[in-house]
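I had to read the description of the data format several times before I understood it. In essence, backbone conformation is discretised, so a fold becomes a row of integers matching the chain in length. I therefore recommend that a typical entry be quoted early in the introduction. For illustration, here is how one protein appears when written out as sequence plus structure tokens.

***
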Amino acid sequence: MKKIIFIVASLFCFGAHSATVVATVDGKPITDTDITARTKLMAIQGNNSTDNRRQALQNIIDDGVKLNYAAKFGAVPSDKDVDAELKRMNLGELDASEQEMARSALRANIAWQVIIARTIMPTVDVTDEDIKNERTALEREHGLPLEMTMIRLFDVPNDVLKKLTSPADCDDAIKMAKNLGGAPQKITAAQYELTPDIRENIAGLDELNWSRPTKDGSVFLICGTKKTKEYGKLDDVIKQNAIYKQSLFVADQQLKQLRRRAVIIINDDRYKI
């Protein structure tokens, strides 16, 4: 009799300390312990939104959907690859549940990147407008390896702005500025050496056209560019970046479709939409 009581008591204790299953994805359980581990991982990575637990559950669901799909293509990475990436990320000290969650998230992310590279990027075609937008974004954020010759006018009044027209060349721009009472400054520099505010102002600006005024009232005119030795195959890189961004958009749409097809059951009302 004592033995029977001991077994029943042990089962009761096990049930009391087992994690609650919050949801399942195609039959695979997601527990509240999993969600706690994911929220801690998100916090380490700088994500501290007020709805972290709901977002954590959504991320775990997406991981499961991605891995199920990637398995069909043999795209699930090995433990060795996952551990190498985890080491490279250097997330600091993680407890057992956090480390396992980090490995799971990394496995899904690596697998999804492989899916994008294998099945989506080869099908994506970008337009000239897409490439132009990507180039402008790169100009704004980092600058291009182009040597630029520019004219800068300081503190330009609004009435003078209206009189600035497209010059024939740099000398013509300087003459125009002086005739309007300005003191033009001629600059020659690599675009990536310019300050962020100047890069932002001239990004996408055509040659021999005055820019819009900056906060300090300055305007710029690019009167010549020259590719530096670092330029290399930048056009190919810009095109690849444009393709990758478009591929991410397509991948997001595909993930939504896969999510709809998956059998997702939410057991906890707090996480239901």
Remarks:
- The chain has a mean pLDDT of 89.
- The longest strand covers residues 219-227.
- The CA atoms of residues 135 and 237 lie 10 Å apart.
- The chain has ten helices and six strands.
